[in-house]
Amino acid sequence: MQSPIPDYLAETLGDIASDTSGALADYIPELAAADPERLGAAFAMVDGAVYGVGDVDTEFTIQSISKPFAYALALADRGFDAVLAKVGVEPSGEAFNELSLEGGTGRPLNPMINAGAITAHSLVGPEGIDATARLERVVDGLSAFAGRRLMFDDSVCASELEHAHRNLAIAHMLRSYNVITEDPATVVEGYTRQCSLLVTTLDLAVMAATLANHGVNPVSGERVVPEPVVRQVLSVMFSCGMYDAAGDWATQVGIPAKSGVAGGLIGALPGQIGIATFSPRLDVHGNSVRGVGLFGRFSSDMGLHVMEVPAASRAVVRSNHVVGEEPDAVRVIQLQGGIRFAGAERVIREVTDTAPAEHHVKLDLTMAYSIDDVARRMLLEIVRRLTLDGHEVSLIDPEGILAVPISSA
Ligand code: DON
């Protein structure tokens, strides 16, 4: 049987293909030469399965989609405090190339606009690194996100550098506030080269899936950045990734995302999927018109809005029953699924409400597949309290998700 997923992708691309509104970015002359009809979409699941339909092997420059990844590298290399001292996390509500510096400090509002991205680029690698080594770190890092060696498009880079007056002006302002501490032209050159890295839609889907997979590339298996860095990056993508359209995007699509002026667009839904689309015509915000349309469809067709989550807690207690008869009766509470705070609270309530009369209480985690630290602490606390109340508590935990000795049932 053929998977219905590529069929779904093909059908959705077909529906969106007739939208020829928008325009190619022309402030970078080389981008105005792109084929405006190109259209592709790819899904990369967090277990490494990848689907792609349309022009998913066509290379184009990554542009602003490099920003969340370079920000991730800066956070990983310099630490949160050093990066946050230089770049904020507030949405600017303005265009990507606005100056948008915080009054007083001169800190760029966020790392998704050019001012913040130029600064984030300057923070990649250890302190004191030279521009060449820093760019190498950027290429190595972004390549690890993609799972293959990425190359530059020298002509797009040269074309942008010839007209980079605005980014140079931004960089000079940043230098005047000591937000960047090096020669502004050198930093802009490095940032522009970063933006000129060539990617395909498939690469972008895997890069997004690496964010969705808590920082581990699901195809190569490599841990690229630590988990707390990913949380920070996805949060900033959610509030700032689509520039002055970020609010519309957050409400209507609801997937942390980032666009680029060459027509790429990525979205990363934590724990589920990385999505990428490619279509070069842009709207007034600099976001791909057909990309925005495709993401709207994907989100509503597949229920991908981050605020739409199942009521996991209600289903955590699978059963609560007594096996055998006194004096050998055992109270068995069977748990299932993924257990987080609300699920653990449900278990606690089940135990306290039941107030088991039986001496022996068995907590069966056979059907539970994951538990986070908070829920683990809560369950261990309920075990401790039951024990203090005089119960004999045993755990059936074949996968060791509570990370305590497995009961022999
Ligand atoms: O700095 C610039 O203007 C470009 N290299 C990148 C801008 C961009 O991709 C904006 N996103 N939609």
Automatic annotation (TrEMBL):
GO biological process terms on file: glutamate biosynthetic process; L-glutamine catabolic process
Enzymatic class: hydrolase
STAS domain: residues covered: 320-409
EC number(s) from the headed UniProt entry: 3.5.1.2
Amino acids binding substrate: S64, N114, E160, N167, Y191, Y243, V261
Superkingdom field: Bacteria
GO molecular function: glutaminase activity
Hydrolase found in the keyword field: yes
Catalysed reaction, written as an equation: L-glutamine + H2O = L-glutamate + NH4(+)
Family matches, as InterPro entries: Beta-lactam/transpept-like, Glutaminase, STAS_dom, STAS_dom_sf
Keywords of this entry: Acetylation, Hydrolase
Pfam families: Glutaminase (PF04960), STAS (PF01740)
Quaternary organization: Homotetramer.
NCBIfam families: Gln_ase, PRK00971.1-4
Protein family: Belongs to the glutaminase family.
Protein name, per record: Glutaminase
Species this protein is from: Mycolicibacterium parafortuitum
